[in-house]
Amino acid sequence: MVALLAVLPQKVSLEQVLKLLFERSGSRIERDQEIMYWVNTTGLSRANRRVLDAIVEGLSAMGLMERGKIVRVCLKELPP
User: Fold this and answer.
1) Quick one: 55 exposed, middle or buried, by C-beta within 10 A (0-12, 13-18, 19+)?
2) What domains does the chain contain, in order, with CATH numbers?
3) pLDDT tens digits, the chain, 80 residues: what are they?
4) Which spans in the chain are helix H?
5) Which of 14, 42, 51, 61 has the smallest number of CB atoms closer than 10 Å to its CB?
6) What is the spatial distance between Cα 15 and Cα 11, in angstroms, rounded to a whole number?
7) How far apart are CA 52 and CA 38, in angstroms?
8) pTM of whole model > 0.85?
9) 8 A C-beta contact, residue 48 and residue 13
């Protein structure tokens, strides 16, 4: 079991974290050594952007692997 620990700039609920991370559009690219996910930040408030930044930082610190490949999560404003 892996735990995501981070000091967030405000109190957030699990529902908010899941919504910020999984209900946003994005893209995924798989390469030989890594799998990259980009989460769309277009339209996020400044406060929610800071929360999402902290979540992504925590995910990166965990050193996630999928099928022997490093998983990277990044934020990016994507066109509509």
Assistant:
1) buried
2) 14-76 (3.30.70)
3) 445 555 566 677 778 878 888 888 888 999 999 999 999 999 999 988 888 888 888 888 888 899 999 999 999 987 76
4) 14-22, 46-61
5) 14
6) 12
7) 12
8) no
9) no
